[in-house]
Amino acid sequence: MTAVTITVDSADAFRQRVTEAFAGRRQAPRISFESLDTLWKVLAPHRMALVQTLAGAGPISLREAARRVGRDVRAVHSDVHMLLQAGVLRKDDAGRIEFPYAAVHVDFVLKAAA
Minimal CA–CA distance to 69: which of 49, 87, 86? Predict the structure, then answer.
């Protein structure tokens, strides 16, 4: 398993990476968000704790994920749904959830407000 970089990228930077990938240039695993606000919304602390728990664990059931983070299955279901929609988690053919990376590197720059 590898590490994934989570970034905040412009549409132009995203298009550039897609163009390079289609040209055959290998890309490092990356999950990009359009804004810092979106990143914070999707990767709120309780969701990031879930991602950390799932890192390197392989596919597991929703119930097992809830047990591992010590939270109610219904609350974890909502978080899993958000993370699936954002492309952070994935489901296998058996319906188990997975974060297919062993580590996360978060990379963004905060600039002074204009």
Answer: 49
Structural tokens at position 89: 């988690």
User: What are the extents of the domains in the chain?
Assistant: 3-107
pLDDT tens-digit map of 55-73: 999 999 999 999 999 999 9
In the three-class reduction of DSSP (H, G, I as helix; E, B as strand; rest coil), residue 101 is classed as coil
Task: Name the class of domain 3-107.
Answer: mainly alpha
* pLDDT tens-digit readout, 74-102: 999 999 999 999 999 999 999 999 999 99
Q: Using CB atoms within 10 A of its CB, is residue 79 exposed (0-12), middle (13-18) or buried (19+)?
A: buried
b or e along 44-77 (b: 16 or more beta carbons within 10 Å of the residue's beta carbon)?
eeebbebbebbbeeebbebebbbeebeeeeeebe
